[in-house]
Amino acid sequence: MHPIDWTIVVVVMAWIVYDGLKRTKDSHEIEGYFLAKRSIPWWAAGLSVMATQLSAITMVGTTGQGFNDGMRFIQFYYGLPIAMVVLCVTFVPFFYNARVFTAYEWLEKRFDAKTRSLTSFLFLVSRGMSCGAIISAPAVVLSIVFGLDVTSTALLIGLPAIVYTIFGGVQAVTWTDVKIMTLIIGGLVATVVALLLGMPPEVGMSEALHLAGATGRLEGLDFRWNPNETYSFWSGLIGGLFLMLSYFGCDQSQVQRYLTAKSVDGARRSLLMSAYWKIPLQALVLLVGILVWVFYLFATPPVIFDRAQDEKMRNGPRAAEYLALEQTYQAALAQRRAAAEGYAKAEASGEEAAIAFSKAAFQSWEQEARAIQQNVRALVRDAAGDRSYTDVNYVFPTYILTQLPIGFIGLMMVAIILAATDSIAAELNSLSTATVIDFYRRYVRTEAPDRHYLTVSKIATAFWGVFASLVAIWAAELGSLIEVVNRFGSFFYGSILGVFLLAVLWKRANGHGAFVALIVGMVTVAWVATTTSISFLWHNVVGAVAVFVVGAIVSEILRSRRAA
Amino acid sequence: MSRRIETHYILVPLVEVVVWAGLAWLAYSFR
Q1: Rounded to an integer, what distance in angstroms lies between the CA atom of residue A365 and that of residue A506?
Q2: Cβ of A276 under 8 Å from any chain B Cβ?
Q3: A6-29 pLDDT, tens per residue?
Q4: DSSP of A168-232, one letter per residue?
Q5: Chain A interface includes B14 (CB < 8 A)
Q6: Which of A3, A20, A79, A458 is the most exposed place for a label (fewest CB within 10 A)?
Q7: Cα–Cα distance measured from residue A41 to residue A261, given in angstroms and rounded to the nearest whole number
Q8: ipTM of the predicted structure?
């Protein structure tokens, strides 16, 4: 990267940290440190909710999925808008009016201490782990594209978050989120413009979409019923609904964002912002990936986008096979490029016979190129001994570094880094809140001045920052970037949602019933996950339903015994 | 709960249906 781009990265990151450190208003009290004394405007809390969910994994992983498969990933979010409405009606008023710091604290008011402690503990374990994945996943990609070691890139991502979250608390987290979201959205829109400007003159937005559409990359609705498939309409709508209910309703990293709002309606509005904008935002991220794919129809893409792996293959024992495949691939790409130009011209002319003929030629060469690309990936997987290896996460960073002008590169790279930073900041802030409120203040020191809890909160934030960094090194070996984060949560998520649903919807439910049901729910999900191949999205439905049914039955049995 | 918030509870699903229609149009028009 050019020194000018490095300067931009350093200056923007320094500004974000400086701005975060300035936001210490009310942070000398525990309610100010964790909840900003409930003074955040709804739109800022709403942007913070969205920023927490949009990490660097989204920036590199989702654009990669757009490049490879197109729009179908969008279906993952179809349950989100409905989940937001359900939460606004049910959980939000309960949490907000109870004046609690954590969602789990509310569970003690409703059930008992053991249910609160177990759900909070599960949150700490799963979020602490996924926080490591949020750091490690982009750290691995950036280490290769920058040519630095993983520890350096992990520190580049994690350290700013740790620093401003320790000192600024939730105020720093929220207001840096607002700035980072503005930078990310502006950067993505500017990238779309740059992509269109970088294509041949005969290819405009319409032709680019025709090229993508001809290969099925614009299909965002798959109505086939297949619970094993994550990216389908029904899995997204039903499984996704339960995942989003759990993520936004029972996960402290999200709940804490909207508990900072000025009123119940403010908290509701902040969630409704995601209901309206999450799907269009994901569509924009996927569109960037799709347009990068169209761009590389007219430019020469590398045989694999992972530079380090490419070098290993060229100098490894299977170099001859690799180079032979590369040659075949480049020949197919040249043919595909000519066919793409022909199809784009035909589309612009509007002549139907020419469109049909050139489209068929383009589709045929695209299939040929894809088949060779799959052979290349299979060869790399075989040589590397990694069956899940993929280079899709390197596509967008490679495009940025090799095709965008100096200055723009720096802005986009800092946007990717900060997307990770702001998610980690929110996670650390919520991990610290759950540690202090649900455990330290509940069991260790129940009465102490605010100043004491504040010091412990800062130590807890630092502890989780160090913990996440250590996990980051281990999580890097788990494979696919996007699913790592979701998989960690999927074993607990549905079951925890079941406990909250039981609390809100089954008035006769009691603490013992909820606690037993939570354990049964987790065992059920683990059993389903190991014995069937259904998509992890459906694990949330299984967990929630199992906990609700078992919790209601056990509660009723206990009540009738007591009555007898 | 204000009336304006309640309006959103109806608007959100409607907007989502419009988004699906938009995606269907995108896939169909540029297939």
Answers
A1: 59
A2: yes
A3: 999 999 999 999 998 988 776 778
A4: HHHHHHHHHHHHHHHHHHHHHHHHHHHHHHTS-TT--HHHHHHHHHHTTTT--------TT-SSS
A5: no
A6: A3
A7: 6
A8: 0.95
